[in-house]
Automatic annotation (TrEMBL):
GO (cellular component) term, any one: plasma membrane
Organism encoding this protein: Lacibacter luteus
Signal peptide: none
Gene Ontology molecular function: any one: ABC-type transporter activity
Localization: Cell membrane
Protein name: ABC transporter permease
Topology in the lipid bilayer: Multi-pass membrane protein
Domain of life: Bacteria
């Protein structure tokens, strides 16, 4: 046991003292928060109002197009394709009627792309005017139309909300938040399985190539060497994740103090924060107002706890397999790629299943993907943000965790048999068929 602890300590300290680890640990949360705040701030400022010259050959749209943040309309005389730029306009909107048809046609001309916001604003205004014209033709009076428009601008005609029912308790649903959290959690685990799994394989390959493994195996058992390396790198990954969670939490409270009231106001898309003072939920409010996602509505303790479990469980499940592959490789990159394929395919398949899982977290594909240990670390994290036990019953969550732990013990046992033979084998290429024979023979 002491020998395993020594190996764990060596693997852990060697990596956490590395400059790359320190930079990625402390800079990534800062970059992430700057990206979130910067995107919200720049997104609010990026909408530009373009001047649009309108040439209406039908006479039905003149002076009826309402200005918006994306488009300002003018109706100059004798405007055409050759002179609209001289009057300071950015684009020309030509409206005309086709021969032998009842439909009008509209064409927007500009020297540069005016953007989706401007395009949608113009299209929406034209459709609204056409709707009014059709209603008037059907006998609806102008007074009634004006009353409807005034009412729709002053209040929401339909206040739609979705709720999750849990016994006598009602919880407001937040599908957008659960989708975002589920996708981000799944993709982080997907990436870390490759990064830390490859780190284990690379470490085993280096020790074998440099003949360090021969010296170490003379003092410790191959299983102890493999287990110490796996747990040591797992501790590195867990340390990094915990530091990221702590640093992001601190930055979410510090950044509002640093940002000026004007920046906060822009980031909230016009919603002011009195005096620029930072409240405990100011960041949550800003994100909710600028993106429509209420991050305060999630069960964060459960999500973070399950994320750490599935990150660690998924890593331990796959790390032993990566270690087994690393033990039989002899400096040939192509050999490494061919042997890694059976390990990486289930990880990729789990990521492919993630999108369908987020869309239907209670479906059969989501259920089986979250139960089978090969895909459960990624797929289950796509389901959990949708609600426990609403979308994920407790028995499914418990079964998934138990099977993942059992899968870890099985893959570790299997990989140890392969590792014991492969780590001391040189100059011979091994296949998965041969590696499985080693495991059965040694068993």
């Amino acid at each position: 046991m002491n020998k395993i602890v020594i190996i764990i300590k060596r693997e852990y300290l060697t990596r956490v003292r590395n400059k790359t680890f320190l930079l990625s640990t402390f800079l990534l949360p800062l970059v992430m928060m700057v990206f979130i705040f910067g995107s919200a701030y720049l997104g609010a400022k990026s909408i530009k109002q373009y001047k649009i010259a309108v040439k209406d050959e039908t006479g039905l749209y003149k002076n009826k197009l309402k200005n918006s943040d994306a488009a300002f309309y003018g109706y100059p005389e004798n405007v055409n394709m050759s002179n609209y730029r001289k009057d300071g306009y950015d684009g020309l909107l030509l409206v005309y009627s086709k021969d032998n048809t009842n439909a009008d046609s509209a064409r927007l001309y500009s020297e540069k792309e005016l953007g989706l916001a401007t395009d949608e604003a113009i299209k929406k205004q034209l459709q609204k005017i056409n709707e009014e014209r059709l209603l008037l033709a059907k006998g609806v009076s102008r007074a009634i139309l004006d009353s409807i428009h005034a009412q729709s601008e002053d209040e929401d005609l339909l206040n739609y909300r979705s709720y999750k029912v849990s016994g006598a308790e009602l919880k407001e649903g937040n599908k957008k938040l659960s989708s975002i959290v589920g996708f981000i959690s799944g993709i982080i685990i997907y990436i870390t399985l490759f990064i830390y799994g490859a780190s284990v394989m690379r470490g085993v390959m280096e020790e074998k190539t440099n003949r360090i493994a021969e010296v170490m195996v003379s003092s410790v058992k191959p299983f102890q060497l493999m287990l110490g390396k796996i747990i040591g790198i797992a501790a590195v990954g867990l340390t990094q994740l915990l530091l990221w969670i702590i640093l992001i939490g601190l930055l979410m409270n510090i950044l509002p103090l640093i940002m000026s009231p004007e920046m906060m106001q822009q980031a909230q898309n016009g919603q002011a924060i009195p005096g620029g003072a930072a409240q405990s939920s100011s960041v949550a409010n800003m994100i909710a107002q600028s993106t429509g996602v209420d991050i305060a509505g999630a069960n964060w303790p459960l999500i973070i706890g399950c994320f750490l479990f599935y990150f660690l469980g998924g890593y331990l499940f796959y790390a032993s397999l990566f270690a087994a592959v690393g033990s039989v490789i002899n400096e040939d990159p192509q050999e490494a790629q061919s042997l890694m394929l059976p390990i990486t395919m289930p990880i990729i398949f789990g990521f492919i299943m993630l999108t369908s899982t987020i869309q239907n977290p209670s479906g059969p594909l989501a259920f089986w993907g979250s139960i089978i240990p090969f895909t459960s670390p990624i797929v289950m994290m796509g389901r959990i943000p949708s609600g426990v036990p609403e979308s994920v019953p407790y028995w499914q969550l418990g079964l998934s965790m138990v099977l993942l732990i059992a899968g870890f013990f099985f893959t570790t046992w299997l990989s140890a048999k392969i590792y014991r033979t492969g780590i001391l084998m040189y100059g011979k290429k091994a296949s998965w068929k041969e590696m499985i024979k080693w495991a059965i023979k040694k068993a």
